[in-house]
Amino acid sequence: LSVGTKIGAGRAHVIKSVKDIGTFKAGEVLITEKTDPDWEPIMKIASAIVTNKGGRTAHAAIIARELGIPAVVGTEDGTETIASGTDVTVSCAEGEVGHIYKGKLKFDIRKIDLKKLGKPKTKIMMNVGNPDQAFEFSFIPNDGVGLAREEFIISSYIKAHPLALLHYNKLKDGKSREMIDELTAAYPGKVDFFVEKLAQGVAMIASAFYPKDVIVRMSDFKSNEYANLIGGHEFEPKEENPMIGWRGASRYYTGNYREAFGLECRAMKQARDGMGLTNIKLMIPFCRTIDEAKQVVAEMKRYGLVQGKNGLEIYVMCEIPSNVILADDFARIFDGFSIGSNDLTQLTLGLDRDSELVARLYDERNPAVKKMLSDVIRACKRTKTKIGICGQGPSDHPDFAQFLVECGIDSISLNPDTVIKTTLKILETEKRVRKRK
């Protein structure tokens, strides 16, 4: 499966273990089994990515889109058929199927005059995770950032588990302590390192797009992903199914992670109030129940993040069927919804989005998923609550974006490389809807 619409070329580098990522060089093509947040530091310097496993919503696909890097996922045998050291060209410009060619091939580049691009009524926002690319992406026509994930900053710039920093003196693993010492050497304390690094990363994105809204999603690592951060194995449980386990909102007010969430809140307050970036809006992921929503909002209030104060808005990800079914109740607590179509699709259809065995069934355009979406958009119109989408669907399928526009969605957040072509489709749809009226 191709991810994005770009073409990348370079020397292939097959890496089978995350322990070997230090050998990867900028401009190479990463060939591996699959990726997780541990791989992000080298993904951002790759010219292209090829994985054996995964579908359109796998980690490699999501990050490649955000970085604007071409990727081909689910090849099954890429690590065996592509030899390290050979020059390859990875093409995602030929439809839904990705192609990997031997050698560095020439290709044509088409340019679009952005001055002639119209501005749709539907807000066009972007998914931006890498602070280093924020300024560059800000020149693409946009209405702000619909999704800025904390995970990229934590895995690429902080690298250590927040609890390993909070409880550094209790760490049993000497290697972890050495790595943390090296990372935090220039900071007065381990906790200060986490708060300042996270605040700075978010601030880089928010300042690049200021004064437009930048919606920052609080951390949404799964327990197995947290465990892979430095020192993480000492603080994380082993879960049978982390995808629907202890993640998102459920971590923020329970167990040891409650104090780690406090560090996230301190960082967001520093970026908003300390640096004056009040265009930062905050978003809560994977919030299962109304009671959970109330507890998280109360927890944020403890750290000075109060709805309405200094213009703060708190959104919720709409990615669980309960968010749709109880939309009116969630709307009484939060200032807005952002549809996470990746998780909402897998939970509505009851399938594992990362399983190649059922990948053919995964489609945001399934009638059941579309009914979920139209229902929650109607609920938000009824309650006068903002609603947008930040999932992969509109970036992958322009016809899906057209459906959302027809439903009356307020904003669509796209991956940077799909903004232009999707905007053109949305303009066509809005014109058609106006004629109908």
What does this structure look like?
The protein has 437 residues and is α/β, with parallel strands linked by helices. 40% of the residues lie in helices and 15% in strands. α5 packs across α8. The longest helix is centred in the middle third of the chain and has 20 residues, at 190-209. The radius of gyration is 21 Å and the shape is globular. The two termini are 39 Å apart. The relative contact order is 0.11.
CATH architecture of the largest domain: Alpha-Beta Barrel
Helical amount among residues, as a percent range? Answer: 25-40%
Q: Provide a count of the helices.
A: 19
Into which percentage range does the β-strand content fall? Answer: 5-15%
Biggest sheet character = 8 strands, parallel, barrel
User: Can you identify the CATH class of the largest domain?
Assistant: Alpha Beta
CATH topology of the largest domain: TIM Barrel
Taken from the alpha-carbon principal axes, the silhouette is globular
CATH superfamily of the largest domain: Phosphoenolpyruvate-binding domains
Q: Give the oligomer, counting copies of the same chain as homo and different chains as hetero.
A: single chain
Number of strands: 15
Rg over alpha carbons: 21 Å
* CA(first)-CA(last) distance: 39 Å
Structural class of the helices, strands and pairings? alpha/beta
